[in-house]
């Protein structure tokens, strides 16, 4: 069952989009210059799978529900370079030279590049965990400038509670994370702060690339792995799961897609809702509100996602009470 908070946030988003759609005018008449105007939105990501794709589709669906439909007065240009920082910079530059009405950057790396490279175009971000820490905005309540967006805060304490609920005797939690990635390092610090009160010790192992993920998992002496929201580690989850199953280590994640791929459980962000929240902001910007006047939306709604077969392969059948509470099961 979804939480009351999740339902209220969903209703708030739906209400905002409904109001935008029911003004009695077409999108072209409501936004940016009148009838016949084709609105152009650029979307840049650092990949096209999993979480990023869910946010992107939620954004497109949210726009459509507000009357902004691709091919009907709206053109979307998606750049997903799936490459290094240089490729991402080139993708942002392509959008920046095409006179877009708005650019949406999905993921922290994409948002960082967009904020540094884009000027004169309203900019939204999504799939970001700490926009102030990353320097995207100076304040969540008053972003200022041409930037705002949607962020989520990984409920690290709740993930640690899952570890104790599924494996009560656990005392050591290993966290693999990308070294130097501000979002991931912030989650490690939070885990370290929360763990002691639960009788847990955190052992963090940074990696510099996908090739190092398996070795990091093998090097950790842990009762459980906690997987943060970290694109590099997520890409290496097949190796992490193999190590965990062979050594009887519980894996608790932070993303629903990681649970689907073999982790035991997670309190996961509703990324479809995050995309729709970004769409609601986009509608307001297209209809005249300055991005800097729109507070950053902090998404605090989570779904309990479980994978019973995966947990059993690790040697830890899920408690019946946990199964009963689950919003989604694999």
Topology summary:
Elements: H1 4-21, H2 27-30, E1 39-45, H3 50-65, E2 69-70, E3 73-79, H4 85-96, E4 102-106, H5 108-117, E5 123-128, E6 147-152, H6 156-166, E7 172-178, H7 182-195, E8 201-207, H8 213-219, E9 224-226, H9 231-235, H10 237-247, E10 250-253, H11 256-260, E11 265-269, H12 271-286, E12 297-299, E13 302-306, H13 308-314, H14 320-325, E14 328-329
Parallel strand pairs: 1-3, 1-4, 2-3, 4-5, 5-6, 6-12, 7-8, 7-9, 9-10, 10-11, 13-14
Antiparallel strand pairs: 11-13
Helix pairs in contact: 1-12, 3-12, 4-5, 8-10
Pfam families: ABC_sub_bind
Signal peptide: 1-20
InterPro entries: ABC_transpt-TYRBP-like, Peripla_BP_I
Question: How is this structure best described in words?
Answer:
With about 325 residues, this protein is an alpha/beta fold. It folds into two domains: about 40-155 and about 270-300, Rossmann fold (3-Layer(aba) Sandwich), CATH 3.40.50.2300; about 155-270 and about 305-330, 3-Layer(aba) Sandwich (Rossmann fold), CATH 3.40.50. The chain has 14 helices and 14 strands. Strands 2-3-1-4-5-6-12 form a seven-stranded parallel beta sheet, sandwiched between helices. Strands 8-7-9-10-11-13-14 form a seven-stranded mixed beta sheet, sandwiched between helices. Strand 10 (about 250-255), helix 11 (about 255-260) and strand 11 (about 265-270) form a beta-alpha-beta unit. Helix 3 packs across helix 12 (about 270-285). The longest helix is centred in the N-terminal third of the chain and has 18 residues, at about 5-20. The protein starts with a helix and ends with a strand.
